[in-house]
Design brief:
Elements (H helix, E strand, L loop, with lengths): L12 H15 L11 H34 L1 H6 L6 H9 L7
């Protein structure tokens, strides 16, 4: 490979893609076939994707809560360092509006 494709020094994704495709075309018969992932690996990937989706949803909900509090109950934002603390959520359940404080 090194004799066929010299390194120019700079990283180039287009050249890398070309080299990979050309190598597969000319020398692909020497490469061993990829094997399918184990069921445990597939399950782990699915759990990681689900966790990533849940984290994104949590951030969206916290941003929505912060926006609503800025409009309806701005004093509550300054009371707590984090909106997802149990004490913050208990406070917001007990005092849902500024008038109930």
């Amino acid at each position: 490979m090194r004799t066929r494709y010299g390194s120019g020094g700079n990283k180039d994704d287009r050249l890398d893609a070309y080299v990979l495709a050309d190598t597969l075309r000319t020398d692909g018969h020497r490469w061993r076939a990829l094997r399918e992932d184990h069921p445990e690996t597939k399950a782990l990937r699915a759990m990681c994707r689900a966790r990533k989706d849940l984290v994104e949803m949590r951030v969206q909900v916290m941003n929505q809560l912060r926006s609503n509090l800025e409009l309806a109950f701005p004093g509550a934002l300054g009371l707590f360092s984090r909106l997802d603390n149990p004490i913050t959520l208990t406070f917001l359940r007990r005092f849902p509006t500024a008038a109930k404080c």
